[in-house]
Amino acid sequence: MKKLNVLLTGVLTAVCAVAANPEKFEDGTAGEKYTNWDGDGYVKSETIGTYVAGRPGGISESESSSYVLSVEGSVTNGTLFSEMVVNTRSQVDMMVKVAYPDEALELPSGETGVQIAVGIDTNGVLNVYCVKPGDSAPAFYPVSEPIASNIWIRVSFDFDYTTKLCQVLLDGAPCVSQYGYAQDSTPGTATGSWYALANSGATKLTSMKIVGTTAIDDVYTSQNTGDSTVVIPDSAVVADTATGANVKKSWLVEQGVSTNVSLVCQDGSGMTVAQKYLTGLSVNDEIKFELKDLQPATGSGNESKMVFSFPGTPDNADFKIYGGSSPATCNTVVGTECSSSGGNSSITVDISSLTSGVKYFKAVAVPK
Q1: CB 305, CB 353: distance < 8 Å
Q2: Does 260 share its domain with 298?
Q3: How confident is the model at residue 16 (pLDDT cuts 50, 70, 90)?
Q4: Which of 23, 193, 296, 297 has its CA 20 to 30 A from that of 252?
């Protein structure tokens, strides 16, 4: 039978220092087992090729191009986690070849200590084994759209042992669902990409198990306490048809939102995720940003000035006007002074002071 599960387990024991060395399988021998991977796995010659979402751990294609670990049953590795310390934010990042199972997804019998697991169901949907909001028992829950079979995907995990949550990302984008939390710092808020660990008492990772008929590559483990722990290249973007913007996946990771950038944010602003990105705002900052008015300043000596008006005067953001010779080069601040009147903000730009090549303007809200 074909299954596809990635299980990450942990116990309460502590050890010292942490390594961050990727398993690339490039020094293996085709047809043979690979060091420290116990079970039904052998090195296989296969090329993943160009991958827009980036390789785990910043690995280049030239570093990992010809060998993978093929799995026919299950493989387990504990060595990758032998130096991880307890209660420290931890990451697992890897490439996985998608294979549809021939029976409904379930946790392999006899498994204990599982913190989190992901698996592909018979319909091609990625599921996360976790505890959903408002419940106490772990189970598998769907967190993605159907994924094509026999392709390579990047699956990333970011464990926060303070909140006992783990963020799950697929191809560099957070897997947002009703079974997760909005962000790691607010575990009381439902709907997000952070999932409650099935083993709430766990304080560190100790092993990984791959179950199924599949292949893996570029397995990267690390411990990083920073806010942005899964590195996604700037070239990985999501296009928004409404605005024409290419929203960076790295920004979506920081915001903890899905790749559906046309969704309206839940902060009451009425703005879409893409609009928040374009204006330099965060998806949950409750700031509504729109250009309300553009008119020439009146009065003697003011004929060369323009006034940009905006609704509201938020405490946590400043409005700025950028200018440039083309829409793509609007990167010079030409107006920063904000005045408030009647609950609105305005910026006056002296056009006469601009260089002759500046003829395009861009309004941006910059968080303080």
Answers
A1: no
A2: no
A3: very low
A4: 23
What is the domain extent for residue 331?
Answer: 293-367
- Is 269 part of any domain? yes
- The conformational region for residue 188 under phi > 0 = left, psi -120 to 50 = alpha, else beta, is alpha
Gap between the Cα atoms of 126 and 3, Å rounded: 12
pTM of the model: 0.71
Query: Quick one: 10 and 107 in the same domain?
Result: yes
pLDDT of amino acid 276:
84
Q: Write down the residue that tokens 């940003």 correspond to.
A: 289
- Whole-number pLDDT of residue 293: 56
pLDDT value at residue 13: 29
Tell me the average pLDDT across 95-120. 85
What total of structural domains would you count in the chain?
A: 3
Higher pLDDT, 112 or 27: 27
